[in-house]
Amino acid sequence: MSGSTFGKIFKITTWGESHGAGIGVVIDGCPAGLLLDESDIQKFLDRRKPGSSQYATQRKEADCVEILSGVFEGRTTGTPISMIVHNTSHRTSDYREIASYYRPGHADFTFDQKYGFRDYRGGGRSSGRETIGRVAAGAVASKLLSELGITVTAYTQAIGDITISMDNFDIEEARTNQTGMPDKEASKRAEAYLKECMEKLDSAGGVVTCQVNNMPAGIGEPVFDKLDANLAKAIMSIGAVKAFEIGDGTKAASAYGSSNNDSFRQTGETVSKATNHAGGILGGISDGSEIILRAYFKPTPSIFQKQETVNKNGENISIQIKGRHDPVIVPRAVVVVEAMTAITILDMLLQNMTSRIDKIKMFYNEKNI
Amino acid sequence: MSGSTFGKIFKITTWGESHGAGIGVVIDGCPAGLLLDESDIQKFLDRRKPGSSQYATQRKEADCVEILSGVFEGRTTGTPISMIVHNTSHRTSDYREIASYYRPGHADFTFDQKYGFRDYRGGGRSSGRETIGRVAAGAVASKLLSELGITVTAYTQAIGDITISMDNFDIEEARTNQTGMPDKEASKRAEAYLKECMEKLDSAGGVVTCQVNNMPAGIGEPVFDKLDANLAKAIMSIGAVKAFEIGDGTKAASAYGSSNNDSFRQTGETVSKATNHAGGILGGISDGSEIILRAYFKPTPSIFQKQETVNKNGENISIQIKGRHDPVIVPRAVVVVEAMTAITILDMLLQNMTSRIDKIKMFYNEKNI
Amino acid sequence: MSGSTFGKIFKITTWGESHGAGIGVVIDGCPAGLLLDESDIQKFLDRRKPGSSQYATQRKEADCVEILSGVFEGRTTGTPISMIVHNTSHRTSDYREIASYYRPGHADFTFDQKYGFRDYRGGGRSSGRETIGRVAAGAVASKLLSELGITVTAYTQAIGDITISMDNFDIEEARTNQTGMPDKEASKRAEAYLKECMEKLDSAGGVVTCQVNNMPAGIGEPVFDKLDANLAKAIMSIGAVKAFEIGDGTKAASAYGSSNNDSFRQTGETVSKATNHAGGILGGISDGSEIILRAYFKPTPSIFQKQETVNKNGENISIQIKGRHDPVIVPRAVVVVEAMTAITILDMLLQNMTSRIDKIKMFYNEKNI
Amino acid sequence: MSGSTFGKIFKITTWGESHGAGIGVVIDGCPAGLLLDESDIQKFLDRRKPGSSQYATQRKEADCVEILSGVFEGRTTGTPISMIVHNTSHRTSDYREIASYYRPGHADFTFDQKYGFRDYRGGGRSSGRETIGRVAAGAVASKLLSELGITVTAYTQAIGDITISMDNFDIEEARTNQTGMPDKEASKRAEAYLKECMEKLDSAGGVVTCQVNNMPAGIGEPVFDKLDANLAKAIMSIGAVKAFEIGDGTKAASAYGSSNNDSFRQTGETVSKATNHAGGILGGISDGSEIILRAYFKPTPSIFQKQETVNKNGENISIQIKGRHDPVIVPRAVVVVEAMTAITILDMLLQNMTSRIDKIKMFYNEKNI
User: Fold this and answer.
1) Do the Cβ atoms of B32 and D356 come within 8 Å?
2) pTM of the predicted model, to two decimals?
3) Is B113:A270 a contact under the CB 8 Å cutoff?
4) Which of A345, C332, D126, D343 is the most exposed place for a label (fewest CB within 10 A)?
5) Which ipTM was obtained for this model?
6) What's the CA angle centered on B198, arms B192 and B200, to 5 degrees?
7) Does D233 contact C224 at a Cβ distance shorter than 8 Å?
8) CA D68 – CA D47 distance, rounded (Å)
């Protein structure tokens, strides 16, 4: 069944395989009037581009985006925005070998089980390149959110067992170093850890944190389309993510109610919370505090050590994967988490617009809207 | 916008508030021919019923289900199955006070922000009673899954910082004790922990684990409707869940690829995995191994200690919540996690039926199907 | 697969069979703050109630609605509105006979083909009673539309070959006579026609017209969710409707462009159309003119003449249907057409609220909304 | 809101404007294993191509399709199939004038009302070129249906007041002449009619009939996703369609029940109907007879006569449209009706696969499927 569409109002549909003609996305439901050109998208894509770091695959991928529809005279028209990134690195030959067996930790086996066969070139549809469509759509969502004053910011919180300290927090650092960590000191230690991984022909996982600032209260739709439920789906749909949490997350399970509850505080006209264990969401609806979520990524499954697996002839074999693979995908995944968060937040903001009859009447009856 | 519907093929819509006329669910898309009567539903509802444990609210709620449509001569007809549980405990007076302020950790503030006002009686739509509809639908999904040989089993893994040992695992124990823990010894320690919580007028959280056995490979729809992504949404949509994980979950982030990858093994005609760090899902598609997921619940926000908050007049006030509240919701939430898992698994099994042209041809052309 | 849900934002799910416990609907996505009580619903249901006319079935059905959720202190809360009409006329014995064969023009055969068996009592889910849920939801939609100044009005345009004259148009007449025709003279002729039908043990069809007044321009979502496309689906989903048209409809196919085009005219600040062949919709989007649509109903398939059919033993047999059946359903269907139109119009009005970034910014940033 | 997606399982999303970079479609949910290459698509696109008839626009449009994803080694993979037709005729200058006013019968005014501005080049998104995406997707659906033995065939039934005679029916004729009429004699009269239209600087409408042969019984989902309801939406979403009917359609409204009912007949193991007034659908579910539907198209709104309208300065003006426009779109619309019918029929066939528990059990438990 169709599973390549996400969102209800700001709805995205991605398509494309690692070694097909290209990767793309169609955004349906983007409001009209947003200033948009390819540079808005490109700067997001550049953040996930391989080859920029020694801890990322050394494949050369230009990943230049082209907007094919939905923009006229520099503004979105309200009609579908179709975007494409042509694939340029098509060395199918590299992948002939992996056609015959199932790589551990990859989707080779499960795609074969589901569809009867698979596009084995570079993982086909299950390749990390699929996230190009998400990031392109996320760039549009982020730009639209910024028009509403809302910002979405993701960064690497941990690689392996190296975790940042919030005392050193510096988001500029995260945007320039090779780990995506907003902590110069931790980033250096993470680099050492990754070098060690590479020497051992091994790979590492990590954690990406994402925060949403200036989020209005009241966003999220009870009871199944809670804001945190939709964010969970958005983030868990990213390949390699094995856990999701909001606010204090797993730690909340061993806390006491007295320490986990956030008190409300009135200051002038504004209600705020004294603490934010909840991560900005209560009952599935944003409470006006900063939203904080975390995505836990497993280590890259493509490692160069010898591994045991089976081939399509039903034989138990030993394999040794070749090629160019990221020893850790976390730094490149930061922008993917940011993109999926932005898409979800925007969609839920739009969904909220019909929650109250008084606002609908104002929308349709008043001169000033 | 509408947010009370879950699923694409086996689609459920819940309705009802804590102190309205009742709580219900409509299942649309249940296949025809399933033997079903109210006792199938009731035994699931009885597992979430309050009053059966000293660590659950002492409110008396009979929670008797009535099937209103979709079943004829003992079998489902393929048309919508509507089920209702009438509310019997309507003491609105208990809740007059909480109408005037925002309880910390509850959805009072966010519902007011979203809708302009709220049904304040017992939490209204954000009450835990809303899960009655989920559990009723989950009972139907579970029965249908059992026809396919698939079983879904949830249990309490931790309460506060007390965690079960898999060495003591005994699911019968979990179904009879007051914690839902499949470990008699851990359960006793958890009871002591909960008594302490109650004495301190405090509350506890915990972890529910759910496993799916005999799951066929190939289930899950790339790339957004991955099996784990949809399970994440299903589970995170349960009130009080703050984190979700699959397989090794958060631990995978600090593992190495070499230890996290599961080798494939061929035995006769069968491909299996030597380990199951993945929790039964690769690339968003089931791999034939047991599916394992975990839900992390925050402590019950209703505690009897004094708390700081604001009222509707914009004043900072101190409150002390009265009434009958669970010191921990985890034991009663076990069946809710099981229900949401069953609903999701069934929906994805049905979604998978159109994945291959050869099977569709066999379905429509062959005499034997 | 699930097919009992209609709408994207104002989303309705109906359930229930002719002779089950009751018929109901859940409205999910109704904005908060609408004044609503059961009398708002009942007056719509009373318009479809049988027994009020000699040309409708003489079955007694009280059809009293109960609101089960989603309304608190007289206003909608934004949460699902569940409504039920209990069935009171359960004489299953009347229907034992029809269990064994397939009535011509009915869904007996097709339900058996689809589901393997059927609830044969009174047509089960395919009974006209299913429209109770639609009418109840339509009452809510109509009330909300009236808050925006929009009115939806349906009436009988033709019964058999008797058609109203617009010169005699009197909507009050339509609401009080037995045909639903807004033309006293035509109504009398239609009554004579129906008497003749009944004497011949035969039945009649007819046409219902529906108009929407004060409709804002700009409503409808290109390219598949065009306003006319969604109206077509809404109306064609009513049992017995065999054709749908908008504006000049079928007549447009034999017209010339020069006569079919509607000129635009500017009067002060207002753009209007000199004529309205289009029926208020251009390119799938409302143009600010009155919306006009028509539904063509086939004759009631339950006739008392002898008919040829097959039974479940695979024998060709003659049957003679007994019981109480409408010789024409058109008068009672008027309110059903009105309801489905109102539901669709409202849903599309809500869908339109996110079409422009400037309006979204005003919605979220301005103090006055 | 998003409105460019159609279908639930075989789900298509179209994008593109008349004078943008191209027109495309993403098919999500196409089963794996279908043999498919560009020639399968191209032969459908060639049927809607302009320039092949003197009654169609003389614009040169190559309309060559490229498959960008979802096909590997000649077969569909189950992942999204993205297709693009690049636009080659970009003479924006032709359209500068129409930017300033609203053409009667077109969507210029309504797009401006909805979105605040519009891509005015050649109608932008509301151009007939949008149907390229539908036809490309329809080609895939038709090929898949033919694997199941089901054929979908559309033809011109009428142009203006010239209607075919079924006595002359010859579908080969329809595929080679300039009107799409399967009646050589009627086609000649229609040509004469069209010449007259062109001489008068006027345009014509017409009727397209579509039939589905070898349709299995049991397809269609009560109560809102009835087969006829979904077909109605599919067809009415095509630009310029003003009416839709199934079977006897509008004529059924003035028939008697005794003449409109179709008797069932048993012949050996087979149940069939003696007549087919119903057009192959009873209670929204296919009955095994041929499905027959009709689409009524209004005359092309672009005529070369002088017309009255308003411009963006709010002035009443006279205009005379220039350029290349079809005097009738019906012959080119035949394949569009066929495509939308095929897409809908296929989607409903896939939706039906989960209707019965016995078939689901066979699907998952049996070796042979």
Assistant:
1) yes
2) 0.97
3) no
4) C332
5) 0.97
6) 105
7) yes
8) 22
